[in-house]
Amino acid sequence: MNSPRTKLYRDKHNAKLMGVCSGLADYTGIDTIWWRLGLIVLSISLGWPILAYFVAGFILNKKPPHLYRDEGEQKYWQRVRQSPHRTAREIRAQFRDIDRRLASVEAHYVESNPRLNAEIERLR
């Protein structure tokens, strides 16, 4: 089952008409103005994108009101939707960095405490 944060929604809160362009902006991280300009240009030149807009407006669910806690979480989920593998690599790198820093703190604490160091060596 997909997370609600990885689905495309209509964003009625930031909408001008039905919320499709603002939903696409939320989903992709591309500013709403570019989606709207693209829709206008394509609708004028091709005609059918305006029909696709209204179909999407009726098919897509409304964005839940409290989908993200803050803007940082929204940006995180946009990165996940754009490149899940890159996001997973970034998270692994962050955990490796935390592990390295904890090991450094542990080494410093053990080196400065001879009794603890002796106890650890005795347990090995």
Describe this protein with a few key phrases.
124 residues, mainly alpha
Word description of this protein:
With 124 residues, this protein is mostly helical. The chain contains six helices and no strands. Helix 1 packs across helix 2. It is rod-shaped and about 80 Å long.
Strand content: under 5%
On the 0 to 100 scale, the average pLDDT is 83
Describe the sheet with the most strands: none
* Poorly predicted segments: none
Counting DSSP E segments of at least 2 residues, the number of strands comes to 0
SSE ordering: HHHHHH
Structural class from helices and strands? Answer: mainly alpha
- Tally the helices: what do you get? 6
Structural shape: rod-shaped
Fraction of residues in H or I helices: 55-70%
Q: CA-to-CA gap between the ends?
A: 45 Å
**Backbone CA Rg:** 24 Å
Fold topology:
Layout: H1 20-28, H2 32-45, H3 48-59, H4 71-82, H5 84-111, H6 114-123
Helix pairs in contact: 1-2, 2-3, 4-5
